[in-house]
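Z., the sequence and structure:
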Amino acid sequence: MSQFTILVVEDEQAIRSMLVMVLQQYDFNVLEAADVAQAHTILNDNLPDLILLDWMLPRVTGDEWTRRLKSSDDYRDLPIILLTAKGEEADKIHGLDIGADDYVTKPFSPKELIARIKAVLRRSGKIHDLTQIKFQDIVLDTEQHRVIIADKEIEVSPTEFRLLSFFLTHPDKVYNRTQLLDQVWGRNVYIEERTVDVHIRRLRKILANHQREDWLQTVRGFGYRFSVKSS
């Protein structure tokens, strides 16, 4: 499972299904919505790494929602790529002026779309290399599934690897057990919430061997957070 989650907001079912298929082929986690109302509901529970947003949506258009998100303290740093049939230079300039991180004109090839997504993710500042995740002195190699802490390689299970990679790419945010189950295990996997606690304890024990256990914090009544800041 990829550590990157993309929210696809597209009202045409055929196009949305195509985008989901392409993204999943490249090992991205995908959330999908048919309009801004659905997308905003998803954002309340799941913070994606990037939004693919159709310009011509019903009721609230993609460019209007981009403007709102980019003016919000909570979402201004969330990368957005606008998808549109509008190919005029003035439209592209408008999309970038309101805060979109990139602009892809329909029709586009899957390879072009993936290349643009990777470029935006690199520019986001969270990810230096799509095969490597860095947080302080922790490094995850997503191709070889290796974890290095303070220049020492450590062994972790596949589940702990996915859990750690999610936390490292979403620092300083609190996630409850249900959200972690959805993001790390997947929505179609039926696992009890206490399973999350078991893996949190295992991961915290691993971090404790390197004096990093305080980074994986329990937020009482809410869930868990990964942060170098004191809880």
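The first strand starts at residue 5 and ends at 9. The mean pLDDT is 85.

Let me know what you think.
H.
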